[in-house]
Amino acid sequence: MHLADLTLTQFKNYGKVSLEFSPRLNCFVGQNGAGKTNLLEGVYYLCMGKGYDSTPDQYNVRHGDDVSRLEGHFVQDDDSRDRIVVKIQKRKRKIIERNGAAYDRLAEHVGRYPVVIVVPDDSSLVLEGSEMRRRLLDNSLSQTDPAYLQHLLNYNRLLSNRNALLKELDGRPDSSGLLEVYNLQMAPAATYIHAQRKAFVAPFTELLTEAYAAISGARETVGVAYKSQLEDVAWEDLCRERTEKDRILQRTTGGVHRDDLTFTQEGHPLRRVASQGQLKSFVLSLKLAQYRLLERSTRRPPILLLDDIFDKLDQQRVEQLLHYVMSAAFGQVFITDTDPERVLALIRSDDTIDWRRFLVDDGAISEEE
Questions:
Q1: What average pLDDT score do residues 75-93 get?
Q2: Are 40 and 12 in contact (CB under 8 A)?
Q3: Range of the domain at 315
Q4: pLDDT value of position 328
Q5: Do both 102 and 31 map to the same domain?
Q6: Beta-bridge partner residues of 29
Q7: pLDDT value at position 369?
Q8: Alpha carbon distance 87, 61 (integer Å)
Q9: Do 142 and 110 form a contact (C-beta atoms < 8 A)?
Q10: Looking at residue 353, which CATH number applies to its domain?
Q11: Measured between alpha carbons, how far is 35 from 168 in angstroms, rounded to an integer?
């Protein structure tokens, strides 16, 4: 599977632009702020039906306009083509169409065209709170397991309702019995989410170790551990144990929305011992491991989006990363860079790579051979 073309209309800083892509490697080169990342965002939108950074849809419409439109064609392994259109209109519901038919729910689209994106802010996966690491778990599992996505949506909806009830109670006991109803309704989703996240970690760690060794030259040993309050107690018991605390704090203090991943290097907390280069290598490895798991589960290579990945990497790690991505049977790859020669040097060293390079300058794009 690959994306054959992309047309953006009034999206981000683009008025209208149409591009045709290589099924293998596509490079967007330009200065910071030129619009390279916005092109990757457009590709991600077509794959997932939403942006990757949780920005409200209306802010992706070009300033001064009310409507934005994205269109592209995905070519399947049997050479059939899917036409995907995303229509964003301020203050109205987003519309996503596949071959002319609109989806009833976004969940019907997620996972159909697997994608992995790597962005500079991904260092937050290690340095910031647990929400970022749960997002990695959810993004991976939602693209491969529709049941997981549905359970996640149900859990988050019920969690929001439960928290609203706790605030409404304002510390008082629940005489209505509604809190217990929410506990019972959340049980199937919480149990399923926990089981799938737990099963995810072992194969993910194996693939992470492989990717990190390829990028770093096997200099350090890294690891991942899954932390969940449901490891030692069932959902029903957890709710019962935390009833009083939840009532006092007016929020749900226990559940899979508190899950986390712990990252280590040589057995020590990664965030405390890793250099900037090691941290960047680890984050890249996380996403490459995610790629491999998606590929294994969907039996097709996801689209890989690499945004400004060379910052803070030494030359040796850059070369190892590029060789790994281009020689390890990855599918379609999109790369942004400020250096017009960096990726080009690798491409010219291997004349078997099918590639296209686009020069980006403040919303204007030209293709260069």
A1: 92
A2: no
A3: 1-114+303-369
A4: 61
A5: yes
A6: 337, 359
A7: 65
A8: 10
A9: yes
A10: 3.40.50.300
A11: 45
If one counts every other C-beta atom within 10 angstroms of the C-beta of residue 294, the result is 24
Domain co-membership, 141 together with 265? yes
* 262 in any annotated domain: yes
Q: What is the pLDDT of residue 353?
A: 79
284 and 331 fall within a common domain? no
Q: What is the mean pLDDT of residues 9-20?
A: 95
35 or 328: which carries more pLDDT confidence?
Answer: 35
User: Looking at the domain assignment, is residue 121 inside a domain?
Assistant: no
Question: 281 and 322 share a domain?
Answer: no
Other Cβ atoms closer than 10 A to 334: 25
CATH at 231: 1.20.1050.90
Pair (262, 197) in one structural domain: yes
Spell out the residues 6+ positions from residue 175 whose beta carbon is closer than 8 angstroms to its own. none
Is the same domain home to 71 and 92? yes
Rounded Cα distance, 84 and 94, in Å? 13
pLDDT-derived band at 164 (thresholds 50, 70, 90) equals: very high
Helix (H) or strand (E) holding 317: helix 315-327
Nearest Cα residue to 60 out of 85, 34, 31, 89: 89
> Which residue intervals of 170-254 are DSSP H helices?
178-216, 235-241, 243-249
Shared-domain flag, residues 199 and 232: yes
Tokens for 210?
A: 């492989």
CA dist list (Å): 135 to 25, 108, 132, 141, 364: 27, 19, 5, 10, 33
Give me the helices (H) in the chain, please: 36-48, 124-127, 130-142, 146-169, 178-216, 235-241, 243-249, 270-273, 276-298, 315-327, 342-348
Q: Are residues 167 and 284 in the same domain?
A: yes
Is residue 288 a part of any domain in this protein? yes
Is residue 120 a part of any domain in this protein? Answer: no
Average pLDDT over residues 239-267: 95
Q: How many CB atoms lie within 10 A of CB 27?
A: 23
Exposure b/e, 160-180, CB count within 10 A at least 16 = b:
eebbebbeebeeeebeeeebe
Strand partners, 244: none
CB 270 within 8 A of CB 264: yes
